[in-house]
Amino acid sequence: MPRIRILPEILASQVAAGEVVERPASAVKELVENSLDAGAGEILVEIRRGGAALLRVIDNGSGMSRDDALLSLERHATSKLSDSAGLASIRTLGFRGEAVPSIASVSRFRLITREPDQMAGTEIAVEGGVIRDVREAGCAPGTTVEVKDLFFNVPARRKFLRAETTEAAHIEHQLRLHALAAASVRFRFRKDEREVFDLPGGMSRLDRVRWMTGTEVGRELVVLPLTHGNGIAVEGFILPAAHARKGRRHQCVFLNGRPVEDSAISRGLAEGFRGALADGLHPCAWLWIDLEPSLVDVNVHPAKREIRLHRPHELREVLATAVREGLTRAEPARRPASPVPVRPQTVPLAAPRIWPASLPVQRELDIPAPVVADATPESPPLPFRYVGSLHDRYAVLESGDGLVLLDPRAARERILYERWLHDAAGRGVESQSLLVPVLLEPGPRECELALRHRDEFARAGIELEDFGSGTLRIGSLPVFLHPGDARGFLTGLLDDLAAGQSPGARLAYEVLARSLARRAGLMEANRPQEAMSLLEVLFRCELPYCAPDGRPTLTEFSMQELGRRFAGVKGSSF
After folding, report:
1. Cα gap 511→513, rounded to integer Å
2. What CATH number does residue 179 fall under?
3. What per-residue confidence (pLDDT) applies to 18?
4. Does residue 479 sit in the same domain as residue 547?
5. 262 and 217 in a common domain
6. Of 51, 78, 185, 313, which residue is the least packed, with the fewest Cβ within 10 Å?
7. Are 184 and 224 in the same domain?
8. pLDDT averaged over consecutive 10-residue blocks of the chain (574 residues)?
9. Residue 244 CB: number of other CB atoms within 10 A?
10. Is residue 323 part of a domain?
11. CATH number at residue 273
12. Cα(445)–Cα(461) distance, integer angstroms
């Protein structure tokens, strides 16, 4: 009896769906790409309950005949590829013929389509991969695909879907990418009967990018000149290094019209900034790359996100050249006309010092002593003697075993972090209300993440609310943060949260408290001469020897180690 057998067709389609359709946004991506391949000038996407209950894609493209509509539901049926030689010259977004049957195999699916020169169209109903009905239909030219109850017959996969707001944010992000890739196409997006955006066709790429970034950030866009080299053409926009982010989510790259991700492209961008980027940060960029199809393989990832470049170093060099030239051209325009820069007017808000010189350190940064059954004993004397300061940055201390360096900034971060984390009254970080709220446009996924953790942000001194269209309204900030610095700092906070892979409430607040402590520490002078007072507070912390991000607060050089350093000759003594 053979143990190897051919999978039934429906099961094979469901397996394929696991690679192609990871979530509702994956289905939207595949269907919208089909619409673009069909020459649509207008695309409407409607969803309900994050796309799990319903997602509908309507286009005015070329449509299909009855026979083609039925064939489109067969696996590996496509009009975009006829032989193996075609794999080397792919210009369309889709070509495998897997998306439609895969989606239909895990949903209640309906396809309505009509060619422009035909009087009637075709409607096909499919449930879980089984065709239930085929009929003639009256409809407008183009194609409508309706997907209901996604993963209804694959409960194991359905349970891995995130909250409706999260799934909707992923869909909106995907549509924004396609709207950037195809600026000539009108894109409309409706969520739960509410119109989220309606982008007219014929917009310039610059206008689409400014719509995505917001007007204020859009003013700082640097235009990359059209740059050619070895069958490669690159153009697009970047933001200055000051806007660099911790992740690459804000690098939108379109290769031959296809949204892609590739490390060579990211490296080329970074090289173009000539070392102006801080470690771990990546520039924000929107790039359109035209490449000879024979120089790239787009068939290396189930969802076609990743690519394989045949000569990646050449693309990297062209990108770096374009970025350098764009930054060079933009530099004169960014220099102030007057030798005395004019500071923008901001709301005058007093920012109290975190560690006022007029107050004892213990009062301002007090960490409650641990409570014991009978009494709280007095802290033992510190095992250090203050010697002096090093470049007014580190405190030099003497211990019983050698030399100790204290980083006051790291120590203050640990103190603040634990004070905010273990505040029994739940007051959190002291905040200041803004007379003029700050409007932040981080994008749909970042907005959803911030709103999901709105209570944790409030405890961290940041009041925010949904302002619509991927915009957050910031009503208060921590007392030590100037409103003019809010945008960069808040986008960094959202990057930290996103890196935590959708953390729970407690972890989210820990991330916020850690970032706030780091920022507050940077706002203060070091004052190493006050090391002994600082140490008294530091040693009441649970983890006094490291800052919240793991940096040491104290570093010790033992007498034995110093002896080895000064000995010089093996066997000699100190």
Report:
1. 6
2. 3.30.565.10
3. 57
4. yes
5. yes
6. 313
7. no
8. 70 64 92 93 96 96 93 76 58 72 93 95 94 94 96 87 89 93 94 92 90 83 90 92 85 89 89 85 92 78 72 91 91 51 34 33 42 48 84 89 91 91 74 87 85 90 86 89 82 80 74 88 80 89 89 90 76 47
9. 21
10. yes
11. 3.30.230.10
12. 22
What distance lies between CA 203 and its chain's CA centroid?
25
296, 304 contact by CB (below 8 A): no
Residue 236's identity, in one-letter code, is: G
pLDDT of residue 181: 92
Backbone angles phi, psi at 447, to 5 degrees: -60, -45
Listed in sequence order, the residues at least 6 apart from 339 whose beta carbon sits closer than 8 Å to its beta carbon are none
Q: Specify the residue for token string 């350190």.
A: 361
Q: Which residues pair with residue 237 across a beta bridge?
A: 223, 286
- Cα–Cα distance measured from residue 198 to residue 209, given in angstroms and rounded to the nearest whole number: 15
- Nearest Cα to Cα of residue 315 among 334, 297, 296: 296
Rounded-to-integer distance, Cα 14 and Cα 153, Å: 10
Beta pairing, strands 222-229 & 232-238: antiparallel
CB 122, CB 66: distance < 8 Å: yes
Given 332, 349, 365, the domain boundary residue is 332
3-state secondary structure of 137: strand
Tell me: do 186 and 224 sit in the same domain.
no
Task: Read off the tokens for 360.
Answer: 């004892």
Give how far the C-alpha of residue 54 lies from the chain's centroid of Cα atoms, to the nearest Å.
Answer: 26
Tell me how far apart the alpha carbons of residues 531 and 539 are, in angstroms, rounded to a whole number. 12
Domain boundary among 152, 174, 203: 203
Say which residue the tokens 């102030």 belong to: 336
Measure Cα distances from 251 to 17, 310, 442 in Å.
27, 22, 13
Question: Quick one: pLDDT at residue 120?
Answer: 94
Query: What is the greatest pairwise CA distance in the chain?
Result: 101
**Domain-located, residue 255:** yes
> Cα torsion at 65, 71, 73, 75 (round to 10°)?
-150
Q: Are residues 394 and 469 in the same domain?
A: yes
159 and 254 share a domain?
A: no
Residue 422 shares a structural domain with residue 549: yes
What's the predicted TM-score (pTM) here? 0.72
pLDDT of residue 303: 63
Q: How far apart are the first and last CA of the chain?
A: 81
HEC string of 255-266? Answer: ECCEEEECHHHH
**Number of folded domains that form the chain:** 3
DSSP string, 336-350: -SSSSPPPPP-----
Check whether residue 131 and residue 262 sit in a common domain: no
